[in-house]
Amino acid sequence: MNGPDALYRSVVATTPDAILTMDEGGRILFANPAADRMFGYAEGELLGKPLTLLMPERMRRQHEIGLKRYLDTGERRLDWSQIRLPGLRSDGQEISLSISFGEYRDSDRRIFAGILRDITDESRREAGMRFLLEASEVLTTSLEYEDTLRSVAELATRSIADWAAVDLVEDGKVRRVAVVHPDPAKLRIAQDIETRYPTDPASPVGIQHVIRTGERVLIPEIPEELLLNAAHDEEHLRLIRELQLESYICVPLKLRDEVIGALSLVSSTPARHYTEADADLASELARRAAVAIDNAKLYRSAEAARDAAERANAAKSEFLAMMSHELRTPLNAISGYAELLETGVRGELTAPQLADVRSIQRSQTHLLGIINDMLNFAKLEAGKVQFSYGTFTLDPLLRGLEELVRPQLLEKDLKYEYRSFDGRSTATLDSEKFQQIILNLLSNAIKYTADGGRVCVDWKIDGPDVVVNVADTGRGIPGDKLDDIFEPFVQVEPLRTRVTGGVGLGLAISQDIAREMGGVITVRSKLGSGSTFTLRLPRERPGETVNPSPRRSRL
Ligand code: ADP
Fold first, then answer.
1. Buried/exposed 529-539: b ≥16 CB within 10 Å, e otherwise
2. What's the pLDDT tens digit per position in 144-155?
3. How buried is 44 (Cβ within 10 angstroms: 0-12 exposed, 13-18 middle, 19+ buried)?
4. Three-class DSSP category at 133
5. In whole angstroms, what separates CA 50 from the centre of its chain?
6. Alpha-carbon distance 89 to 55, whole Å?
7. In ligand 1, which atom is closest to the CA atom of 445?
8. 330 C-alpha to ligand 1 centroid (Å)
9. Is residue 259 within 8 Å of residue 214, measured between CB atoms?
10. Model confidence over 381-392: pLDDT tens digits?
């Protein structure tokens, strides 16, 4: 054989693409060997058969209508050069085809020729990737993982499976969290089977097995004997058959090395038999689902821990507030009666008695100070402190502080220096709280400076801020403690060697108040030669934070 005819024949006979021709009546006139192979027929078997034989049932009518319309009107609804359609093999399997068509005339007959390529693997891969992407999106949208798993199962039944189920291990038991099938009647049968015939945990292909071993199971074609073996009785077998189980994948949901559940996919379509590629896809999906479950669980436990901590903290603050409040009443009584004795209305006191009464008063004042600190702190922690902003001139307020600490200064023979910036500058702050902070810093400066030392207060306006320094020539603070001292109950000296009063709340309270007013306290210090605490506050009211919300406890 030679010439163009021979060449055409060789090409048609050897090409891996199927080539078919069809007459106006839709009958096959010619099929090359690749077409026979693609659809599973013997040589010559297709000749004279309707082309619809090679199409799934559901496509046939549409094809006939389309062909008739074209012959009558010449109207083409499809792009003939590029059509994707499913095909049907003689064994009932569906394949995906990429088809291009042409038409020619042979004497007065119209003939249609098609070239068909099997793209089943390619389109499965594509569908798989699409599904995986969609599923990943679903998995990251919600922290309610049971809903999420159900959505993923639903998604699976729209693309790669007829059945999808997710089981999770909880407290050593396997619990089904989702089972999806588009047909509710089938779902009912499945549930019926589950309640009437519980699965055998020892079954080597069941979910339990996958969970126990962490190994996936793939059954491309579920053999009849498997169903027979699984069935407890005739009725059971009948029900199982109704489910039309054709092909099966079960993959473990693994988190690190632990199996936390399983994902099962079932195909009921005779044309769809799962392959290793499908099992890989399911494994990848299971991996992503497990990560999503892990995230959701971690989030939930963190939330629960935070809730518990917040509740405990609220209870603690409430307790502190209540205790301090309750303690103040008897303390006030102590102070009242001590004063009464001191005035002599109950009879003149001897000098030693008077000295004792004064000791009682000093201790009372000290204790009251501590209790007030606790109360303030508890209130701050609970966000219950109200700020009342007002505009005031800075100099008089700061100058007046000396008056308030004069007794302590005298007691320790400390030199006091006040350096004013100017006499006019104003600030819009809660003046009482502003004073409270500086008084706190000043009391500390006095408390932690040895007799004969020096304490200095100076201030300035720095851009939008007012900056107040409280400096002393006291013992200083070790560098590694400079941050910690602002934490509640932190004191540089261990309790047993302490000579000064206080419980370590003063700076924590002051810092909290400063922060609420939009500012901050910082410290510079050299061990042995003194400390300078600096309060920086915006002179204008910061935003609308009059009623600050409760903050996280720092205790
Ligand atoms: P308290 O004075 O009640 O212990 P504070 O919160 O006011 O609590 O201070 C915390 C700690 O910081 C103090 O115990 C002390 O060790 C250290 N400290 C604070 N101010 C000074 C200061 N001016 N000089 C040295 N140490 C200080």
1. ebbbbbbbbbb
2. 778 888 888 888
3. exposed
4. helix
5. 58
6. 8
7. 23
8. 28
9. yes
10. 777 788 889 999
pLDDT at site 283: 92
Give residue 545's pLDDT band: very low, low, confident or very high (50, 70, 90). very low
- The rounded distance, in Å, linking the Cα atoms of 135 and 149 is 9
Identify whether the C-beta of residue 517 lies closer than 8 Å to the C-beta of residue 387.
yes
**Atom 23 of ligand 1, residue of closest alpha carbon:** 445
Q: Please list every protein residue whose CB sits less than 6 Å from any atom of ligand 1.
A: 444-445, 448, 472, 474-475, 477, 485, 491-493, 502-508, 531
φ, ψ for residue 456, nearest 5 deg: -135, 135
> How far, in Å, is the centroid of ligand 1 from the Cα of 447?
8
Q: Are 518 and 537 spatial neighbours (Cβ–Cβ below 8 Å)?
A: yes
Whether 458 and 493 have beta carbons less than 8 Å apart is answered as no
pTM of this prediction? 0.53
Q: How far is the CA of 333 from the centre of ligand 1 (A)?
A: 30
What number of other Cβ atoms are within 10 A of residue 28's Cβ? Answer: 20
C-alpha–C-alpha distance, residues 198 and 177, integer Å:
16
pLDDT at 311: 87
CA–centroid distance, residue 322 to ligand 1 (Å): 26
Q: According to the model, what pLDDT value does residue 138 have? A: 81
Beta strands in 236-363 (DSSP E): 247-255, 258-267
Q: What is the average per-residue pLDDT within 248-265? A: 91
Q: In angstroms, what is the span from residue 514 Cα to ligand 1's centroid?
A: 17
* Substitution candidate for ligand 1 out of 441, 444, 454, 529 with most atoms within 8 A of CB: 444
